[in-house]
Design a protein that fits this description.
The protein is built from 18 helices and no strands. The protein is an all-alpha fold.
Length: 416
């Protein structure tokens, strides 16, 4: 116990962050060394274990956009195995500076931007939890970064050279702005939706939660970006919206195990003839659950954004494993609602166990065991393991709990 000046009272023992009154202090350098050791082990494991994707997706971006900049058709360029550019033309405009670089510098820029985006996301989402729990903030950030790097969707995002974390960062800039009632809230979502259509689901979130101004800003931003792309590249814009957008074969086989969306699940049940009616029913059910839960979580933007990211993964026709980085905010919400640790309430202990299991599954790479297909219950559950984690989050992620997972103290949300 201390006085208001921070000095120990007479007859008491000061408690530092490195020790307790009941025993000797832990050297302050020991946790740092443990984190450095953990980061080293994780880095070596990622470097030497199988699963590298050879920067395939940035190769598609780089090749297609360079071909287009040289006078070719954006959506005609394909790789040796017939994969082509699948994003709207505005994405190609944004990627022009990187495509102008040679191959290895382009990879380096992609990696640097991904690291910056990941750092922003982890700071935004983890730092309030660390402050609320009283944990050392930079050590918590470093540990979170280590745990983040182990996740299969994160490893694939980096190894493919994907843009998922950059799009997430744009969307979560709007979380930061909404919590501060900023007039520009919605710009990030609009830009992300103009680059790739899936983040447009967050416009639906803004509408359902009556963030009218932010929804209008997001819609106007996406429309303006799309119109700019149409003015610069009218042929590519016409091709995208009339042909490429509707050709799911451009992105791969729906039944491939990496497609952890609801349509991927349906396609794996009958690859030759996926039941579209069953898929639409599952999508309708997911939308209904999401609508009810985000309405209950109204005012808690962090839970609302987490639920909406999960919904986007489920209802998108194609959600490759690397797209599942959108599940990470849900895991962090689960950490927040179980504080303080160790959790005393039974419900908090159950939530913590569920979060640990979900995290372990997403790290495991278990779906790849079934990449060549497998029948029976083990094939169904193993081949759809990540999807089942996402569905569990949509249904069970806590949408109440007061300050357990709300915005940092002193922030408010936009209500109109």
């Amino acid at each position: 116990m201390t006085t208001t000046t921070g000095r120990p009272r007479v007859g008491t023992t000061a408690v530092s962050g490195t020790g307790t009154a009941a025993g000797p202090a832990t050297p302050s350098w020991r946790p740092t060394l443990l984190i450095i050791g953990l980061a080293t082990v994780i880095g070596v494991a990622i470097a030497v274990l199988p699963g590298h994707r050879g920067w395939f997706d940035i190769g598609v971006y780089h090749g297609a956009v360079r071909h287009w900049a040289g006078g070719g058709q954006l959506y005609e360029w394909v790789t040796w195995n017939q994969y082509g550019f699948t994003y709207p033309p505005f994405a190609a405009l944004v990627m022009l500076p990187v495509a102008a670089l040679p191959w290895h510098p382009a990879i380096a820029v992609n990696l640097a931007l991904t690291v910056v985006a990941a750092g922003f996301l982890l700071h935004l989402l983890v730092d309030p939890v660390a402050r609320r729990a009283g944990w050392p903030r930079w050590r918590t950030f470093a540990l979170a970064a280590c745990l983040f790097a182990v996740l299969n969707p994160v490893r694939d995002t980096v190894s493919f050279g994907q843009v998922n974390l950059l799009l997430m960062a744009l969307v979560y800039v709007d979380l930061w702005l909404l919590e501060r009632r900023h007039r520009l809230a919605g710009v990030g979502i609009g830009l992300a939706a103009a680059i790739k259509l899936t983040p447009a689901v967050f416009v639906a979130y803004l509408l359902v939660t009556r963030r009218w101004r932010a929804a209008a800003t997001a819609t106007a931003t996406a429309a303006m970006a799309t119109l700019v792309a149409a003015a610069v590249a009218p042929n590519a814009t016409r091709t995208f919206f009339t042909e490429a957008l509707w050709d799911t074969g451009r992105v791969g086989k729906l039944e491939y195990v990496s497609n952890q969306s609801l349509l991927g699940l349906v396609a794996r049940l009958d690859p030759a003839h996926p039941d579209r009616l069953l898929w639409l029913c599952l999508v309708a059910a997911a939308l209904a659950v999401w609508w009810c839960r985000v309405r209950r979580a109204a005012g808690d933007e962090r839970v609302g954004f987490a639920l909406t990211g999960v919904l986007g993964v489920l209802v998108s026709p194609v959600s490759w494993v690397h797209h599942l980085v959108w599940l990470v905010p849900g895991l962090i919400v689960l950490v927040g609602v179980t504080l303080p640790w160790p959790p005393a309430r039974p419900v908090a202990r159950r939530r913590l166990r569920a979060g640990v299991v979900g995290y372990a599954v997403l790290c495991s790479g278990v779906v790849w065991i079934f990449a060549n297909g497998s029948g029976g219950p083990h094939g169904f559950f193993g081949g759809n393991a990540y999807l089942l984690v996402a569905a569990g989050m949509l249904v069970l992620l806590p949408v109440s709990g007061g300050a357990d997972h709300r915005a940092p103290e002193g922030m408010s949300v936009q209500s109109g």
